[in-house]
Amino acid sequence: MEQFQIETAQNISIGQHTAHLGERMLAYIIDSFIIIIYTVLMFLLLLSLDIDFGDMWALYLVMNLPAFMYYVLLETFMNGKTVGKSIMHIRVVKLDGSKPNFSSYFIRWILRIVDVVLSSGGVAVLTILLRGQGQRVGDIAAGTTVISEKKRVSLRDTLLRDLPDNYQPVFSQVTIFKDREMQTIKELYDSAKRNGNHKVIISLSDQIKKVTDITTELKAIDFVDTVIRDYSFYTRQ
What's the pLDDT at 30? Predict the structure, then answer.
């Protein structure tokens, strides 16, 4: 999965993740299933009608235009999504993060013949893996990509505490800890505080002082909380 920068009109850079290849493949399978179901239902409907065989096939082709144009229609009217993309929380966007216009969706749709139909998806997969930025041939030609809208929370995100703008750290020694070590301290502290288990907090305080050689008159509960806050301050810099 690639990450690329979107530059907004306000000159703010926003990191955006491209959709994982597996997510795109699952979305494709879902959309293909919907198209097949629609096609079969239209065929059965026409069979139930008392019309000539030749007229039935002409009408069948007309009634299947929505299935034929499924991708370009849905992506145009659903803001870059199909049913499969909506379920997988992925969406088509321009490389600058803006909404594609109809011509972009149309180019992607036409080039599905090369990307997916003629090569059974092989060209699309190979191009996405080699090109980067989540682009198949249709995306390259249209200047688009497919992004993931899933919220990804990293370990560091779970460590951060809300701090006032004028917060001043007390113990610089906390930077010797690693993220996972601090995550364990934070989880134990929050759990002990929630359950009123002061012995765990005292034990945490003693262990932190031993590792960092910190000497302080703060109460154990205040000391551990300060350590977590200080770590949050230093790691967000």
Answer: 96
Q: Which two tokens stand for residue 167?
A: 């917060």
Residues 15 and 77 both lie in one domain: yes
Q: Which of 19-28, 61-70, 124-133 has the lowest mean pLDDT?
A: 124-133
Axis crossing angle, helix 179-195 with helix 220-235, rounded to the nearest 10: 140
Q: Range of 212's domain?
A: 155-235
Residues 23 and 126 in one domain: yes
Is residue 18 within 8 A of residue 145, CB to CB? The reply is yes
Same-domain check for residues 132 and 160: no
Cα–Cα distance between 46 and 56 in angstroms, integer?
A: 6
Question: In the numeric block, which tokens belong to residue 69?
Answer: 């144009």
User: At 94, which helix (H) or strand (E)?
Assistant: strand 90-94
pLDDT in tens, 107-139: 999 999 999 988 888 899 899 888 777 899 999
The residue among 108 and 59 whose pLDDT is bigger is: 108
**Of the residues 124, 148, 172, the one at which a domain ends:** 148
Quote the distance between the C-alpha of residue 179 and its chain's center: 23
pTM value is 0.61
Two tokens, residue 128: 């996405």
Residue 153, pLDDT > 70, answer no
Distances in Å between the Cα of 165 and the Cα atoms of 156, 168, 234 are 19, 9, 13
Boundary-marking domain end, from 148, 180, 201? 148
Same domain, 140 and 169: no
